[in-house]
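Hello forum,

I keep getting stuck at the same step: I have a sequence, I want structure tokens, and every attempt I make locally crashes halfway through. Rather than fight my setup again tonight, could one of you with a working pipeline run this one for me? It's a single chain of 278 residues.
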Amino acid sequence: MSLPLTDTRFFFRPLSAELVALLQSLPAWAWGRPTVAGTWRVRDIVAHLVDTTLRRLSFERDRAAPPSPQGPLEGDRDLVAYINELNAAWIRAAERLSPRVLTDLYARASVDLADFVESLQLDGPALFPVSWAGERESLAWFDIGREFTEVWHHGAQIREAVGAGSYSDPRWLHAVLVLALHALPHAYRDVPGRLQQSLVIDITGDAGGCWTLHCGAGRWDIREGAAPGPSARATISDEVAWRLFFNALSPSAAETLVHLEGDVALGLPLLRARSVIV
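Reply #2:
Ran it on my machine without issues. Output:
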């Protein structure tokens, strides 16, 4: 059985409230701290969260048309370039804004987003497909969940940069990890597998669990629980797992921190799986 639906609608409000409280407590120097998000500082991640929240409200709630790309989007590379330019343009403009203004903007926008997602049905069509899972059409619950993973992992990057520790509720990370695991069948799409071959993924920690990537009928799928007698097993902590899936772990660190047993070659594509557009 494939993974069940994950409903994150009522997690947005407490998660964003906790993030806003942290931002309101930060001293001025903390806003310039570097983060694991490439060249982005704390203030850049906050600006990005304001941007993506307002985009979601504009494009989905208010049905405003997204800005047109400069050229046709003919593949993943074009889509990445288009999104990167949207992100970069906002970050440049946000240099004009103070930490207080950014915090106030996010405080208001995040409440509006929580109000909106709590009103949505889960089984309708999504406005945007979840491309990192290889989908051209997605259901609403998955797109909502993708938005939740964005808020969670960017907030986690801020928390790490300022030494704030983990979020208060491990259920939020558990939901993020379950959603991220949907990327694995797509990540393994070019990996030839024998019938009934399987990789057990054991994520330890309060937000963890056990799942099996399984090959059957010519395709890979991801299931809850541990298959008996797997071909390989990967053991990883929940704190390492989110960094792996959200591109915050170097290849050398991934090789060190993800413990592979059995058919090690079968586990190697896991180290390259990502649940973000890169």
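The chain has a mean pLDDT of 94. If your local run keeps crashing, start a new thread with the error log.
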